[in-house]
User: Which sequence fits this backbone?
């Protein structure tokens, strides 16, 4: 990779069977044109996120938001590899939150009041991710405090927020979350059970609390908290905290928090809106930040014990089934208390979440979150409740200091869970669980054979995303370690040790060494009997680990061994089996078998139809690895109805594993593209990590890139439909002549391409169309450029019409029509540039680059189609391509061919006027469609002061907004610009066509509130489609000196990051206007 230079180079070999375009950029994402290869940023980067802000006042002093210096990172003394928390800074002891839930934008507008252990002078380091920090105040005086936010986001830690204190003991932070918050999943009404109201919930473990509120996001920083949640009245909330009150919002809710004038953050006007309700909660015991939790939706509940309610969406069937499944919860609590001591959290309520919840359960104190897949109908799902209950002592009461010691949470909890199960469900069931865990531990050790660091209990996680290394190792190896100690000293002695351990360290966060010191101090000579260092710091499974033994365990594993010999268990042998027995049986079968064996097993026992997902997914995994495709329909159904990572990992992993498995990889990509929005962001990231190793997006298409997290999976999502586009293009234009259509992704050169909704595939449609018009038939020179781009624009829209529908195709035509009219206006002093065939003698083609050859060329071909009919034009097009392929031609050659093959066309259409005349011919067609008319009508309403209602634009994506913005007046009142953005946050759109269209409106209207966003945009993109209008609008008009000075400063600062072509274009703009 070349440093500190911008280099662009093309390599093409027309005689080769594969075409590769390579673009290399460094320093910044600046290239002036679309490329045939589409480039993306990582989806974790700011440039690919839509941050929805509320209106704030600009800071008074630029020094309040300065870029953080690299030296400050070196000076930090971190206590956690996944946090910016500094050991020299006081820890937070209490957080007071006010949270306003805005469901239409999937955003929370909030304040966080952080109370510190001691007053502090100097920097305070906090973790954030995808948060917009509006202001930070001294709560005593409501005066601003200086702060910095690191300019880029660390892929694991997020962004460092540094607040500069002067003997402050607390700080008040005004902020908003983002729709891309990694902790939050926002479900639209159609994604919920009743499909009436939206739903949102958190999953903050292990490092995601920082995307809900700024904090020291490490388990070492235990905090108490209080929270006021402002939500729509028809909804209710639960939290990992005691519920205190539900009341109408009043201004006093925010007393002592802020005033509008001093903060510039108008939460008060939102807070007291009609139709809202406030729920108040308090957590009086110190918890690690990852246990912060809430859920908001239409919730109902059932009482199942004196200390337990079961909550879920207000659906009677779900609530009743959950109440039956967890009826024995109080008995489990009593048994756990007899083993581990008093239950310290008062209540043990359960929330059954929608299917997208990524885990089996989350041990949030007072309010455990559960996946609906644990409701099995036979009470066996209560085992997960036993696990989460056990966390009330090991994990919540005593917590690992950081994720390098995660086994202290999960190993202890797995041990405690099995002790509870043994008492409540019997020794045989407990032994089964141990057996399943033993098998799972061996599978994990095999999975990590190339990175055995992950098989240690105490491991080095510097630079490692804890979500990426999540496994059963800390659970099962941790359990095995404690079980080994129990075997050594006997259960009664170990029980006494366990109670003393809990009593000693409750409400503390500790590390492995602290535990080992306590163990050696209380169990004399244990280090002589057990190699403690081998167990905690060694890889793999120590030789003195105990394989479980019980009659039932031996029987099941023996029957699994018989399967290798072709024997399926008899019905009398499995008559009493429930889910756990079948799970152990499936885990002990060979990894792959003959498809006929899979079919025979299911024919007898219908495991593919099991209501127990442990059994069903275990069987489907066997079917996938054995390539028994009879069950792929059930695999698809399962992947679309559950979001638990325990099930997603093996199913997606099985589909993409192995060489020569392209058909299954394509299936996996399609299923993920269709189901992705129903998964939690954490689960999305895990599946993307699986795909990062396997990125075939079609039989003729691969996506290449550097090994950068998120780039490949973002491309796979955006372009999952590429093969379908190729097939449709072939049906229109003839055989694809280039064998492969591969994409090379170079991060982060095109930060405006990835849109997250597959609409970016339209650009691929354009470049694909070039495979016939432009690459196969090429303009003879640039005076006939329309032969490349007019034909390709026509072909692109025909592909889009088939793949994305007539409405979307009509929108693109409408946007093009508007753009063509703008270009004709721009060239009114040099109308030569509005001809299709024009004289370019002595003219730099870069200076006259415009949309004219694209859109006027399209209009010409569309006019011919209208004249002769689509079937006849399609035949003509195929004949044209077959006649001139691998040739370079001019306009006259095309016209001669047209007249020879479409009799009398020159009488019906003035061909000379179209190709050599200026402007837009009178017989050009303005596009018409219901959607086009609706959008342009709404744009006309804007002149009357009416902004579209949310229901009118609910289905809009980038193309609709682009057409709307294109049809607004060139200038409006600044107040209208502000009102439009206040409702729809267009200034923060991740679709740059929308964002730049809005910023262009803001500049033309001299609404300087957005000039900071203009500056940011001009420094992060280099595409001339965006640079031209932004720089042009800044410098146009008399008496506009302030904006001209700004434009020149921005260009001076960004110039070296632009491609030389773009530099020349902007210099030409300045030469004309400055």
Assistant:
């Amino acid at each position: 990779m070349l440093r500190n230079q911008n280099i662009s180079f093309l390599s093409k070999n027309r005689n080769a069977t594969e075409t590769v375009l390579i673009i290399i950029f460094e320093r910044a994402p600046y290239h002036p044109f679309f490329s045939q290869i589409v480039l993306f940023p990582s989806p974790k980067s700011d440039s690919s996120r839509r941050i929805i802000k509320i209106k704030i006042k600009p800071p008074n002093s630029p020094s309040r938001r300065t870029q953080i210096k690299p030296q400050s990172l070196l000076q930090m003394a971190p206590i956690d590899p996944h946090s910016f928390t500094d050991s020299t800074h006081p820890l937070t002891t209490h957080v007071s939150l006010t949270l306003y839930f805005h469901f239409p934008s999937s955003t929370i507008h909030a304040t966080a009041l952080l109370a510190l252990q001691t007053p502090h002078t100097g920097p305070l380091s906090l973790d954030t991710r995808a948060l917009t920090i509006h202001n930070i105040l001294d709560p005593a005086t409501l005066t601003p405090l200086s702060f910095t936010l690191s300019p880029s986001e660390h892929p694991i830690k997020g962004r460092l927020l540094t607040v500069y204190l002067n003997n402050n003991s607390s700080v008040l932070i005004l902020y908003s979350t983002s729709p891309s918050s990694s902790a939050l999943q926002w479900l639209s009404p159609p994604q919920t059970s009743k499909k009436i109201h939206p739903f949102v919930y958190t999953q903050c473990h292990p490092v995601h609390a920082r995307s809900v509120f700024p904090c020291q996001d490490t388990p070492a920083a235990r905090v108490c908290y209080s929270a006021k949640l402002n939500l729509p009245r028809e909804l209710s909330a639960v939290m990992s905290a005691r519920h205190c009150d539900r009341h109408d919002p009043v201004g006093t809710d925010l007393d002592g928090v802020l005033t509008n004038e001093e903060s510039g953050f108008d939460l008060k006007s939102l807070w007291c809106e009609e139709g809202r309700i406030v729920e108040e909660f308090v957590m009086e015991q110190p918890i690690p930040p990852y246990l912060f939790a809430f859920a908001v939706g239409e919730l109902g509940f059932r009482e199942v014990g004196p200390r337990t309610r079961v909550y879920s969406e207000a659906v009677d069937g779900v609530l009743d089934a959950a109440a039956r499944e967890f009826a024995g919860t109080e008995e489990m609590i009593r048994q756990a208390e007899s083993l581990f001591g008093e239950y310290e959290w008062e209540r043990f309520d359960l929330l059954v979440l929608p299917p997208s919840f990524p885990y089996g359960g989350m041990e949030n104190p007072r309010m455990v979150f559960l996946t609906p897949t644990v409701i099995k109908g036979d009470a066996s799902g209560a085992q997960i409740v036993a696990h989460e209950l056990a966390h009330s002592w090991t994990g919540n009461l005593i917590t690992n200091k950081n994720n390098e010691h995660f086994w202290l949470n999960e190993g202890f909890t797995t041990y405690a869970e099995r002790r509870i199960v043994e008492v409540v469900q019997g020794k045989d069931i407990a032994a089964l669980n141990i057996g399943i865990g033993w098998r799972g531990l061996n599978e994990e050790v095999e999975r990590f054979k190339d990175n055995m660091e992950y098989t240690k209990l105490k491991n080095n996680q510097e630079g490692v995303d804890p979500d990426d290394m999540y496994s059963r190792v800390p659970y099962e190896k941790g359990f095995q370690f404690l079980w080994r100690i129990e075997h050594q000293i006997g259960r009664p002695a170990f029980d006494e040790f366990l109670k003393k351990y809990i009593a000693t360290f409750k409400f503390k966060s500790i590390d492995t060494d602290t535990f080992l010191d306590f163990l050696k101090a209380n169990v004399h000579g244990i280090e002589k009997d057990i190699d403690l260092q081998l167990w905690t710091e060694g890889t793999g499974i120590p030789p003195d680990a105990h394989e479980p033994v019980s009659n039932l365990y031996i029987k099941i594993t023996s029957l699994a061994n018989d399967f290798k010999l072709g024997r399926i268990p008899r019905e009398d042998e499995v008559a009493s089996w429930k889910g756990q027995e079948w799970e152990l049986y499936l885990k002990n079968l060979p990894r792959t078998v003959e498809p006929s064996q899979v079919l025979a097993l299911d024919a007898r026992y219908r495991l593919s139809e099991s209501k127990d997902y442990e059994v069903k997914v275990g069987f489907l995994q066997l079917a996938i690895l054995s390539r028994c495709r009879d069950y792929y329909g059930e695999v698809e159904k399962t992947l679309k109805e559950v979001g638990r990572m325990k099930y997603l990992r093996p199913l997606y992993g099985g589909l993409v594993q192995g060489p020569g498995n392209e058909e299954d990889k394509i299936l996996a990509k399609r299923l993920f593209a269709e189901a992705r929005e129903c998964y939690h962001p954490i689960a999305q990231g895990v599946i993307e990590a699986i795909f990062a190793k396997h990125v075939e997006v079609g039989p003729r298409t691969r996506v290449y890139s550097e090994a950068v997290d998120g780039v490949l999976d973002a491309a796979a999502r955006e372009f999952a439909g590429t093969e379908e586009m190729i097939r449709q293009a072939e049906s229109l234009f003839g055989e694809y002549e280039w064998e492969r259509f591969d994409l090379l992704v170079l991060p982060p050169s095109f930060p405006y391409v990835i849109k997250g909704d597959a609409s970016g595939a339209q650009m691929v449609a354009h470049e694909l169309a070039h495979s016939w018009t432009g690459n196969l038939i090429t303009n003879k020179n640039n005076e006939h450029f329309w032969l490349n781009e007019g034909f390709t624009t026509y072909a692109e829209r025909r592909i889009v019409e088939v793949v994305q529908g007539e409405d979307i195709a009509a929108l693109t035509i409408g946007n093009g029509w508007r753009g063509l009219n703008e270009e004709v206006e721009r060239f009114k002093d040099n109308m030569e540039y509005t001809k299709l065939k024009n004289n370019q003698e002595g003219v730099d083609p870069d200076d006259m680059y415009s949309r004219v050859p694209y859109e006027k060329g399209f209009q010409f071909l569309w006019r011919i189609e209208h004249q002769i009919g689509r079937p006849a034009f399609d035949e003509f097009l195929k004949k044209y391509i077959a006649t001139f392929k691998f040739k370079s031609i001019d306009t006259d050659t095309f016209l001669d061919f047209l007249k020879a093959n479409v009799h009398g066309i020159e009488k019906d259409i003035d061909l000379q006027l179209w190709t050599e005349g200026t402007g837009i011919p009178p017989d050009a067609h303005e596009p018409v469609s219901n959607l086009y008319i609706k959008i342009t009508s709404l744009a006309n309403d804007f002149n009357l002061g009416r902004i579209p209602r949310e229901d009118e634009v609910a289905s809009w994506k980038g193309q609709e907004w682009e057409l709307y913005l294109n049809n607004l007046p060139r200038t409006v009142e600044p107040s209208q610009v502000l009102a439009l953005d206040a409702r729809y946050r267009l200034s923060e759109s991740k679709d740059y066509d929308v964002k730049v269209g809005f910023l262009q409106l803001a500049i033309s209207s001299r609404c300087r509130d957005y000039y900071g966003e203009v500056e940011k945009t001009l420094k992060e993109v280099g595409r001339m489609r965006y640079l031209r209008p932004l720089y042009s609008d800044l410098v146009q008009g008399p008496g506009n000196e302030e904006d001209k000075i700004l434009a020149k400063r921005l260009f001076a600062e960004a110039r070296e990051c632009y491609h030389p072509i773009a530099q020349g274009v902007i210099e030409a703009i300045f030469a004309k206007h400055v």
